[in-house]
Amino acid sequence: MALLLSGCMVGPDYVPPRTEIPGNWTEHAATAAELARTSAQMQTWWATFHDPVLDRLVQLAIASNLDLQIAGQRLLAAHDVRDEVAAQLAPQVDTVDQAGIQRFSTTLQYPPLPGISSSSRYWAPGFSASWELDVFGRIRRGIQAQDDELGADIEARRGMLVAILGELADDYVTLRATQRQLVLARQNIEAARQALALTGRVFTQGLGTNLQVAQARAELETEQSSVPPLQTRIAQLTHAIAVLVGQLPGSLETMLERPAPYPKVPALPVALPSMVIANRPDIRRAERQYAEASARIGVAVAQLYPDFSLPLSLGVQSSMIHELFAADSLAFQLVLSAAQPLYHGGRLSAQVRQARAEAEAARLAYRQTVLTGFREVEDRLVAYRNDSLRDATLRAAAADNALALDRARRLYEAGLVGFLDVLTAERATYQSQDLAALGDLAELTDAVGLYTALGAGWRGVWLTDTQLPVDERTQHGLAHRLDHLRRQLFP
User: N or C: which end of the chain has fewer CB within 10 A?
Assistant: First the structure.
């Protein structure tokens, strides 16, 4: 009967959640060419920036980021927890060896019986075993839940990888943009110094005033004050990148301070909504968590049914060691045990209701995660498009302001305009150049954010290549051999 019922598992079988998926995005409908290009770039999306330094940093982060290594060790631990649960399906065998001397009270019967000693020696080597018959699937549902929990942990680690690569790329492009701002600031300082010299010449020629000289000197000092904050920001970004790749702050200054071409803004990456569900680790993790919660219902329901087990004890018992292997010294006990819950004050029913409520919450959390993912992609698409338009306008404004500044200086030197016109043109030029640099940065960060929102970067990367620092074989050879035998008997 137990063999016939061994295939029975109570509780609901998992059914993947059905989610309404739009055919395309509202902000930007993906074309066939864009889909093909993005699909080819999803695995190594950082290469679209055409920056060898960024490529090197990404490889360092994948290999050496400490958060990823910690997550890898926790995956190893979670896999062993799953094996612990699965071990309940196999017989549990232990050795039970006893040897000693015992004495009985002689005051329980008086007078003592003649010829009977009050003490005796005993030898009792043996072993005990038990085997729980998983008739209603409590253990198997528990294994399913652990498999799903392990799957959720794997997706969490993948999500961490996506986030780390996104943060690394964002910090890197911000660093390059800040370095570009620093170059512009130094160019502006030199221009302000030339303006100060110009006002000095005009003043000595009797065409200017001390006011104009003071204004030019104040403008120079203002531009000089913009350099220290930029240097601070560069140092902080360099330190953050070093920590992301698992190195000490300051160890990458030589690599990152070396002049490098500005990263190129990649073409618009876009994928279908169905690809987002398949790629985003947070959505995949939410789906696994729902599967785990569904399996937990079966575990709770199985508590309401009888529990069958086969306890076995086998050994030899003798007062004389040379009689241990005699047939008469053999002692064993084998029974079929069954336990049926009768009354627990509603605790078991409450556990079932709790499991069902948690499963429904997990289903709703999955749907919310899908909606959040779609919103993030839509937001990044519209930001990418509008920032591209804005950046083109800022570039044109910077060019026009530079032209206006050049003309204002020429007219001032000829005495045709006042210095206020030059000062106004300088400030407009410096501001537009800075805004143009920030506009380029916005396009780059939009591209990084869009790839991150699409869930790109984790495919093709091993979950973990770490090893436990201590080999269990050197710690307990017998345990390792028994575990190997168990895996052969109960794969």
Answer: C
CATH classification of the domain holding 240: 1.20.1600.10
Taking Cα atoms as reference points, which of 14, 98, 64 lies closest to residue 324? Answer: 98
First-last CA distance in the chain: 23
Domain total of the chain: 1
Q: What is the DSSP letter of 48?
A: G
Token pair of 123, please? 């030898």
Pairwise CA distance, residues 185 & 228, whole Å: 10
**CA count, 13 A, side-chain hemisphere, 237:** 22
Whole-structure pTM value: 0.81
Domain range for residue 181?
10-90+145-305+350-489
The pLDDT tens digits for 194-242 are 888 888 887 787 766 788 788 888 888 988 898 999 999 999 999 999 9
Which of 364, 373, 375, 386 lies closest to 456, judged by CA?
373
Dist CA 460 CA 161 (whole Å): 12
Contact 309, 136 (CB under 8 A): no
How many CB atoms lie under 10 A from the CB of residue 252?
A: 20
Rounded-to-integer distance, Cα 471 and Cα 320, Å: 42
Residue 488 in tokens: 């052969």
Instruction: Write out pLDDT tens, residues 321-360.
Output: 766 677 777 777 777 888 888 888 888 899 999 999 999 9
Most confident of 110-114, 142-146, 357-361: 357-361
* Measured distance CA(89)–CA(142) in Å, rounded: 11
